[in-house]
């Protein structure tokens, strides 16, 4: 192992726990496009493919599907290209539905409605962000999960300013026909893992990361989270998962910059 | 070999543009943008333009320079700098109008125009605030129920409600290719054509800049015929301008000039910073610009 990694030879870091939690979001997906956006999501997706979901398809971060576990920030020229997938083709894939995306969220509410467009009134926003990007089309066409590296009450809000990604309540209003491809599966944050496995698809605390209490997560969430009587800890990486993360998938440890170890 | 000669210049193209036109700009974010044509627009007196694009610094520069009435976009981003600072300022100051689409909706609007259809249907947008905030987007009900067979079976009842993305007609499209011939055939050599072909076909007239003009017979020396995706059927004029896409990326010819992009992004901090940038890089000819930034070979 190279010298720069020696500092991580010990116990799993929070970032590495997050990588495993992300990987778990893709468990069971089989042969579909695993399309996580962000460093830890990308490491987590690659981890799932290198371990328990070997049939997943992933991009090189540009215009192709890459068979090898390209580290984040790696030159796409190092990709072992399985298939060409430029942007026009990406929309064909996503409308076809064999895709599970993990997006970021500037704001997200209890039903998984997500905002990345702007803060304030959309007509003249207080803070312009990305716009809608692919969020409306992604969420109504295939499985979507979210990654939040900064869990806090300004992100987990009662009501988002602009609904970009469609949540469970909005999908239910559309009716069973229009929402038949909609699934918001998981929200992974730097503190915890949330899902929507409740009667009315309200967000539920699924697990807390080691070293985080349920009360901390509740306090960092701006709406009433469904909290089961027993909330387990997010599982730790196995030795083999740690080896894959540290030596194969993210040898430059970029994950540690996205979520600092507490 | 009969190939027309469509060679022109940035100045001649921009002389064809008029206030209030709808202009599509190819590329994606800060990637393979026809920036020398954008810079020529910045030097002109044009105003009230509607810009249709997967936006990058083209949008920011045009907004900051007061050329824009409306931006129609799937996003505006500098890629390595996620938020375009001048577009942000224009939105937050209310100096432009915005139409913000889902990325796939923008593709469909261009495709509808390219195919001369009034709209194309999609599920994208349903349930989101995109439709609530922008009532110009309407829905359409499928005349076919789900499970309808091509033999006419299952013909009872209506189908589902879908978003009808209206055709996005362009007066002019501006695109940039790695190689082109004088007839206006274009070749992209990076991984992604983006929506440049749709832009070209959605437009009344399309002007294409290129890094290098080559003989038609020499295209295969640069890439397979699969990379020859812009036909002269789609183009009105072609400009040879090495470095035209600077400071956006144009692989394999050159990467993004990240240092320059940072310098550009920092100009949103103050009027003084912008004025200095404008005086140094924009109030000069394209030849002078290329000498300053050192891309041209």
How much helicity do the residues of chain A have? Answer: 25-40%
Helical stretch count of chain B? 11
Number of separate structural domains of chain B: 2
Element order of chain B: H for helix, E for strand: HEHEHEHEHEHEEEEHEHEHHH
**The level-1 CATH class of chain A:** Alpha Beta
CA radius of gyration of chain A is 18 Å
Describe this structure in words.
The complex is a heterodimer of chains A (262) and B (297). Chain A is an alpha/beta fold and 262 residues long. Chain A has helices at residues 14-25, 39-50, 87-96, 135-141, 168-174, 214-219, 239-249, 255-258, and strands at 33-36, 64-66, 81-84, 99-104, 107-108, 114-115, 118-119, 127-128, 143-148, 183-189, 192-195, 204-208. Chain A has a single domain (3-246), classed as Glutaconate Coenzyme A-transferase (3-Layer(aba) Sandwich), CATH 3.40.1080.10. In chain A, the strands form four sheets. Chain A has a six-stranded mixed β-sheet with strand order 1-4-9-10-11-12, sandwiched between helices. In chain A, strands 2-3 form a two-stranded antiparallel sheet. Chain A has a two-stranded antiparallel ribbon with strand order 5-6. Mean pLDDT of chain A is 95; it is low at 1-7. Chain B is of the alpha/beta class. Chain B folds into two domains: 10-103 and 168-214 and 227-291, Glutaconate Coenzyme A-transferase, CATH 3.40.1080; 121-144 and 157-166, no CATH class. In chain B, the strands form two sheets. In chain B, strands 1, 2, 3, 4, 8, 9, 10 and 11 form an eight-stranded mixed β-sheet that branches. A three-stranded antiparallel β-sheet of chain B has the order 5-7-6. In chain B, helix 3 packs across helix 4 (85-93). Chain B starts with 9 loop residues before the first helix and ends with a helix. The model of chain B has no long low-confidence stretch (mean pLDDT 96). The chains are: A alpha/beta (262), B alpha/beta (297).
């Amino acid at each position: 192992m190279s010298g720069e990694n020696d500092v991580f030879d010990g116990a799993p870091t929070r970032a590495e726990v997050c990588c495993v939690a992300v990987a778990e979001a893709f468990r069971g997906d089989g042969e579909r496009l695993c399309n996580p956006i962000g460093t830890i999501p990308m490491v987590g997706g690659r981890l799932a493919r290198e371990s328990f979901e070997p049939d997943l398809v992933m991009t090189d971060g540009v215009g192709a599907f890459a068979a090898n576990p390209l580290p984040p920030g790696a030159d796409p020229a190092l990709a072992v290209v399985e298939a060409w997938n430029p942007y026009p083709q990406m929309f064909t894939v996503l409308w076809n539905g064999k895709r599970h995306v993990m997006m970021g969220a500037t704001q997200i509410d209890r039903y998984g409605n997500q905002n990345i467009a702007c803060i304030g009134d959309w007509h003249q926003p207080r803070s312009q962000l990305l716009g809608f990007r692919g969020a409306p089309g992604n969420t109504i066409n295939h499985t979507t999960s979210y990654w939040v590296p900064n869990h806090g009450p300004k992100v987990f809000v009662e009501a988002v300013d602009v609904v970009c990604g469609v949540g469970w309540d909005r999908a239910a209003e559309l009716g069973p026909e229009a929402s038949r491809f909609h699934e918001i599966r998981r929200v992974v944050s730097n503190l915890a893992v949330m899902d929507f496995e409740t009667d009315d698809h309200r967000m539920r605390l699924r697990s807390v990361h080691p070293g985080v209490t349920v009360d901390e997560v509740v306090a960092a969430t701006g709406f009433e989270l469904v909290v089961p009587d027993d909330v387990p800890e997010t599982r730790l990486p196995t030795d083999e998962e740690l080896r894959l993360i540290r030596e194969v998938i993210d040898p430059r440890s970029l994950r540690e910059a996205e979520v600092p170890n507490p | 070999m009969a190939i027309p000669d469509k060679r022109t210049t940035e100045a001649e193209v921009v002389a064809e543009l008029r206030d209030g036109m709808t202009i599509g700009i190819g590329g994606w974010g800060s990637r393979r943008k026809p920036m020398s044509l954008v810079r020529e627009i910045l030097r002109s007196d044009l105003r009230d333009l509607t810009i249709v694009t997967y936006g990058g610094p083209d949008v920011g520069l045009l907004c900051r320079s007061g050329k824009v009435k409306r931006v129609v976009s799937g996003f505006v981003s500098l890629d390595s700098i996620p938020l375009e600072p001048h577009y942000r300022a224009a939105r937050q100051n209310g100096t432009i109008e915005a139409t913000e689409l889902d990325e796939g909706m923008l593709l469909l609007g261009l495709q509808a125009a390219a195919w001369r259809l009034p709209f194309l249907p999609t599920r994208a947008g349903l349930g989101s605030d995109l439709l609530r905030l922008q009532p110009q987007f309407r829905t359409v009900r499928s005349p076919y129920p789900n499970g309808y067979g091509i033999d006419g079976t299952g013909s009872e009842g209506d189908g589902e409600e879908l978003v009808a993305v209206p055709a996005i007609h362009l007066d002019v499209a501006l695109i940039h290719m790695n190689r082109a011939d004088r007839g206006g055939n274009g070749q992209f050599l990076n991984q992604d054509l983006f929506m440049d072909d749709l832009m070209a076909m959605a437009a009344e007239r399309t002007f294409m800049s290129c890094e290098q003009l080559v003989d038609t017979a020499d295209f295969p020396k640069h890439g397979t015929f699969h990379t020859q995706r812009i036909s002269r059927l789609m183009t009105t004029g072609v400009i040879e301008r090495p470095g035209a896409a600077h400071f956006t990326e144009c692989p394999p010819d050159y990467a993004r000039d990240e240092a320059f992009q940072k310098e550009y992004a920092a100009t949103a901090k103050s009027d003084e910073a912008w004025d200095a940038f404008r005086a140094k890089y924009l109030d000069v000819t394209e030849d002078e610009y290329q000498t300053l930034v050192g891309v041209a070979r």
